[in-house]
Write a structure and sequence with these properties.
The complex is a heterodimer of chains A (164) and B (63). Chain A is built from five helices and no strands. Chain A has helices spanning 3-40, 49-72, 79-108, 118-131, 136-162. Chain A is globular and about 65 Å long. Chain B is mainly α and 63 residues long. A two-stranded antiparallel ribbon of chain B has the order 1-2. In chain B, helix 2 packs across helix 3 (27-34). The longest helix of chain B is centred in the C-terminal third of the chain and has 11 residues, at 42-52. Classes of the chains: A mainly alpha (164), B mainly alpha (63). The A-B interface holds A 1, 6, 9-10, 13-14, 16-17, 78-83, 159, 162-163 and B 20-21, 24-26, 28-29, 32-33, 35, 37-41, 43-44.
Chain lengths: 164, 63
Amino acid sequence: MSDQKQTGDRLRYRMYFWLMDLSLIALLISVGEELFRLATGIKYYGLTGTAELVIGLTLMNLRVFVPLLLVVAKFMRDDYAESLWKRTATVLAYAGAIGPVLFYFYALTGSLFPEGTMLRSIWYAVYSAFYDGGSGTDILDITWMIFLALFVCTFQFLRWRDTR
Amino acid sequence: MKNRLKVLRAENDWSQAELAARLDVSRQAVNAIETGKHDPSLPLAFKLARLFDMPIEEIFDDS
């Protein structure tokens, strides 16, 4: 095998892990930002329209389209990444079966949080994402995005656990 | 699964990155195999056996 091809392969494999790291960072920023908005009630940060658009698009790409690429791009995975991918898929199969049941019980816990409190707002944000989706398209979009987010988080968790 | 990869690599005076380059995998893959966190696929195990010129069972121990 030529040196050039080997270098290309290694770069591809490294890039898979880098993109996975970036996706996780984008996810954490997005979740943190949403929680910050809920906690403080601040809706705008005083950014210009262009800055908000660029930041928003970058985060969305890293949160949605990059994970989509990482799920389907087998050519970017080496032996270890492929094994992590399969372990992640196994976890998600269990999560797909058990998750809806857990969310049913989650819905029942709403009465534990008094109306008007921050905890209630956070509880409702999660609840409404799953139960007040509205049209079928919304539900499909939400399920898709949650699946991709779970894929990145699970993959990174398993990878992190392997380093312990 | 236990393996002798770290010892064999040291005997050849290779870094993890150098071994990864010879196997055409990422350095993380070599690290995960060495620490026993990842059992390599059969094609990669054969690649390792050819690289170190020894049978697979002398590199990996499933007992």
